[in-house]
């Protein structure tokens, strides 16, 4: 079959790889009908995330049709059913899954000893990602093996298109969880850094959850335009001070809730700060740039909440712990507990409250993938979200 395969820094190739096969009774094989390039794929593309190996199949945002099931599926899935596959692989039986903390499933990471060394304890297995999270082959392919498939799926109701439901596998529940864990109240100003795909979903989610006003910070004109179309006030941090504008919009008090939808590859608007982080990265003295975290801690209203769906992989420097502690801020983070949210989100799509396909700007086939990775990474051609059809 054809798949997008990682070969090193900025080297993704479309090539033939062996077809997946059933390896465990709880496996299923999915024929992929749609997949997407996610912002966190770019952390692998640029090789900021450790633990990748040549030959890894990319992709953790995908959906398709069930074509084969293992003996242990026990009727939970049937051939021909359309499913979205969450990027977090879940067993559904461990203590964490039973509590709804699916992204830290205790059983699905087959390399849990590596994750435990890096993080102290294992997290869930993820598709198409670092070997720290299992090294499972991803869904930017014609077919994919889904472990624990009797639990790791979202069934697609009749009448909904691929593009309406594809993002249930990652960016829509990720933006939703970011907003929910911010505990948004009707009097809240919610500031969201990053107008990429997750930021766009966080904007719509914060508005659906009743925020008084939502403010989005970015520097890419077409992304800011999409944020405004979704109901946000925008700040172009290339031309204006984020701190000054947020204070203007909140009578000098700062936003009650702040969401970091950027993560480890943030660009500081202040040249000296950006140069400092890039030099420390080059010298292997830090792995992630904490620009957004620093700014959120500084500008957030005392007793506020910081929600972090943006991905961080390792170590950051110069976090103002004094401000975080003395202002009484609450910090909430984590990969997305996808299946905790999707029953509700499927209904919201079916009821017409939201159509997540608004974010798609580019479509192509797997063969177009390597070039579209570059287009997405460089934000060329007004690119915000890429969908591929194998």
Determine the strand fraction and express it as a percent band.
Answer: 15-25%
Shape category: globular
SS field, number of helical segments? 13
Got a strand count?
Answer: 18
Q: Over all CA atoms, what is the radius of gyration?
A: 20 Å
- Determine the mean pLDDT: 95
Overall structural class, as computed from helix and strand content, comes to: alpha/beta
Helical content, roughly? 25-40%
How is the biggest beta sheet arranged? 7 strands, mixed
Please give the alpha-carbon distance between the first and last residues.
10 Å
Low-confidence stretches: none
Task: Describe the structure concisely for a colleague.
The protein has 390 residues and is an alpha/beta fold.
